[in-house]
Amino acid sequence: MRVTQNMQFYSAINNLYGSQVQYNDLMEKLASMKRVNRASDDPIAATKIVDIRQSMAAIEQYGRNMDNCNAWISTTETKLSSAHDLLVTAQEIAVGQATATATAETRRIASHTIQSIIDEMSGLANAKLGDRYLFSGSRNDVAPFSKTVMASTIEPAQAVAENTFQGTVLSSGVFAGTLNRTCVLKITNGGALAAATYQYSTDGGKTWNGSDLSLAAGSVNFGEGVELTFNDLGGTKAFGINDVFYVNAIAGGYYSGNSEDVSVTIDRGTSIAYNISGAEAFTASGGGVDIFKTLNDLKEALVVNDSPGVSGQMENLTKARTQITLNQSLCGTKANHIDMVKNNSAEFNIKLTSLLSDAQDADLAELATRLAMKETALQASYAMAAKISNTTILNFLK
Amino acid sequence: MSLSSLLFASRDALTTQQMAINVTGANIANVDTPGYTRQRAEIKSTGMIDVAANSVQLGIAVSRIERLYDRYIEAQTVDQRQNSGYSDEMLRGLQNIEVLLDNTSGGGLSDKLNKFWAAWENLSNNPAGQVERSDLLASAQNMTTTINSYQSGLHTINTDMNRNITDVISRINDKAVEISQLNAKIIDAAGDTGNNNALRDKRLEALKELAGLVNLNWIEDASGALSIYLSNGDPLVQGATTRALRIELDASIHSNIYSASSATEPINGAVTKGTLGAYIALQNDMIPQYLDYINHCAIALAQGVNELHRNGFDLNQNTGMDFFTIADMNNAAGSIAVSSAIASNTNRIACSSTISGDGDNATKIASIQYELLMNSQTSTLNGYLATVVGQIGRQVANARTDSDRQTAVMNQLNNQRESVSGVSIDEEMINLIKYQMAYTAAGKLCVTVNEMLDTLMELLQ
Q: pTM of this prediction?
């Protein structure tokens, strides 16, 4: 084969380029400490990296969610434990005042102590973490517990501020339900009363009746006695789509919150209701006793010097303590659940970190060795390039 | 045999060797001229006299100047240039897209999506929180801006392609004109071997450059003219005439190429190789493909989030609002944005599934990240993005392999061509010595004959 000067120069340059490209590549990997600096370095690893990073971001977020839950649960636990202490005090008083040695005077004094226990209990049951009530379910606009008994009520109807409808809406009826609820009506087709359609929900908007109903009758019955009546002033006030009206119906007693769970995702596909239901902890709706009623009854019995009435509340107080303890242990269960998930995610996170590292991190020892080798090759290429011009016949024709 | 004929012989030898030295000089001068084919003076003896029934050759002449080349290697080079022109440009174009869509090192759309979902989760922990709400708005806007920038980036690459295509077409037309002009000169100079060689070198070089730009077929006819046809048979150069290509932009800002014989129907489909082929493939296949991917993402994201968001209640208990707006469904990636009502008032973010202000709707929206929204309900948004990243990575990696292989092929062909047609200084120097010695010897012959003539003249006095 004939070898010409151009061939020598071309191959010298090509070899130099080749070595430099590989050298640069290694330098980049060493500097970034990453094996995959762009998708084309390893397309399969690049796909994995994007996947793993998402999983890791999600785990990080779930970690934050769990920290929030833990704060909530431990605060709840503290409040419940204080409530338990109050009940113990109340029971001691009841035991003391139920005996024959107690007089009307001591019972009157004790009734003041019970009143302050009620006040303190109300403070605990209405406690907040941040801006949210611990025991109100998902309702957050009013304090969930009152110190005095409320009658069963249907609150005034509410029209959302940005509604198109400017007519009037009134609530009516007598609430027959046993659980507090918020009934919501949503306009699905606008227009005057005759033309408008709506859907309604009896659980605050979580689930809907599913089909559009005509509003032509002007009034809507949500069941259990709750009714809304609309007046569009003779058809002059039209409804807009997505206008929302709602009404709170309170079953009576001491609780005005609802029995909805407050939940958050703590792992992919796993969510946890981290709140303790105020209704279950402090009222009789969970099959127990109504703590505020018991304390108020005890107070009344003390005020009127009713000894059998006082001893009659002792059993209720014991039940109330059990009820609180039960809810305390529920907090413990929730906390354990979260701890378990947290440990699992921590383990999973370690696994993901090592997978991510496998997919994208460079093996420094190997890189450094290869870089040294490549450097030698590059130096050889330079030395060779410098020699080309010495190897022609011209050097010998003097 | 006369002395004067010896003189003639020495004269012929002198001119012949001088000619040979000229050719050698030309070779040396053109040692690094691209496309230069080394030449050799074919020397043959002329004239013959008989002396006592013995023939003696007398005289010498250059019969022709030969161009040393291998027709097969040159044809191969023209063929492979079409491939290497394509693979080099394809690699460059895909690398531009890869940089744009890179998600491997963070800061890409995938990360922005993760932050977006996390912001919803944070809001679900504190549904009324103003900080959480503005954080969600910021991360949503960050994400839509990223999607917008993907679209505008791809759009810019597309516009660059139009500029590139315009450039290439004008270079193709220039080369076609050059070849047709050379054709005319070669036909004119049919008998003139020396001049012809230089013209042919130039024309072959132009043909190779043209082959790097577009795929073509070529044929050399008896008159020496080179005709060039596109792969669909449309002529580009016929003898001394050029049939120029022309381009027009269509409604979607794509370049359409028309040939002289196909003035109304674009011939984009016929251009599959060379730089132009790469630009056409990038513009007609690659860029729209990735735009589609991004559009699908934008639409699925907006629809998924909006559907749930419409069912939720905001802080003021309104319902039925969209979170994202897409002004132009055909350009979803370019026009996706957070709805202006939400951007101006974060209380409008509907994170509650009931009117009482819980965070359940935020939790539901955050879990869209696990929903199989893409690829006919087989992959999640992030999974889809990962596939897109993998795909561009694979395409770039394949293009790089192609380009490397094509470079190796071209180097090999170049070496083969150099081996046959390249100038070797060593060889030329030795030839030079040879011709110089021959020239000196012929000069010596002339002197000797001159002395012999003098001797004869002296005899006559």
A: 0.86
Q: What share of chain B is helix, strand, coil (3-state, %, to 5)?
A: 65, 15, 25
Structure confidence by residue, pLDDT tens digits, B357-379: 888 999 999 999 998 988 888 89
Q: Decide if B383 touches A, using CB distance below 8 A.
A: yes
The closest CB to that of A47, out of B387, B395, B396, belongs to B387
Mean pLDDT rounded to a whole number for chain B:
90
Complex ipTM > 0.95: no
Q: Are A19 and A360 in contact (CB under 8 A)?
A: no
- B-chain residue closest to A270, CA distance: B367
Asked if residues B348 and B142 have their Cβ atoms less than 8 Å apart, the reply is: no
Chain B residues close to A48, C-beta within 8 Å = 386
The rounded percent of chain B whose pLDDT value lies above 70 is 98
Q: What is the pLDDT of residues B143-200, one digit of tens each?
A: 999 999 999 999 999 999 999 999 999 999 999 999 999 999 988 887 665 568 888 8
Neighboring chain A residues of B384 at a CB cutoff of 8 Å: none
CATH 1.20.1330.10 in chain A: give the residue spans. Answer: 59-151+255-348
Test A258 with B387 for CB contact under 8 angstroms.
no
Indicate the pLDDT class of residue B6, thresholds 50, 70 and 90. confident
Decide which of 2.40.420.20, 1.20.1330.10, 3.80.10.10, 3.40.50.2300 is the CATH code for A59-151+255-348.
1.20.1330.10
Residue A98 φ/ψ, nearest 5 degrees: -80, -20
Q: Does A252 touch chain B (CB under 8 A)?
A: no
Task: Determine the pLDDT at residue A162.
Answer: 86
Read off φ and ψ for residue A75, nearest 5 degrees.
Answer: -65, -45
B386-431 per-position pLDDT tens digit:
999 999 999 999 999 999 999 999 999 999 999 999 999 889 999 9
Question: Which segments of A251-356 are extended strands (E)?
Answer: 253-255, 263-267, 270-273
Q: Is A86 on the interface with B (CB under 8 A)?
A: no
Q: Which residue does chain B place closest to A263, by CA atoms? A: B360
Helices (H), B43-129: 71-101, 109-125
* pLDDT in the model for residue B96: 93
DSSP string, A136-164: STT--SS-SEEEEEE--EEPPPEE-TT-S
CA distance A319 to A336: 25
Q: Which two tokens stand for residue B270?
A: 């016929």
Closest chain A residue to the Cα of B401, Cα to Cα: A40
Q: ∠ CA(A68), CA(A70), CA(A74), 5° rounding?
A: 125
HSE, CB side, 13 Å, CA atoms: give it for residue B385. Answer: 28
Which of A2, A36, A68 lies nearest to residue B125, judging by beta carbons?
Answer: A68
Is the minimum CB–CB distance between B379 and chain A shorter than 8 Å? Answer: no
**What is the distance between the alpha carbons of residues A32 and A30, in angstroms, rounded to a whole number?**
6
Q: Residue B373 — φ and ψ, nearest 5°?
A: -90, -20
H-helix or E-strand spanning residue A183: strand A181-189
What is the rounded CA–CA span in Å between residue B242 and residue B229? 11
pLDDT value at residue A223: 86
| B45 vs B169, higher pLDDT | B169
Task: For chain A, list residues with pLDDT below 50.
Answer: none
B114 and A1: CB-CB below 8 Å? no
In chain B, which residues have their Cβ closer than 8 Å to the Cβ of A397?
429, 433
Distance CA B299, CA B110 (A): 16
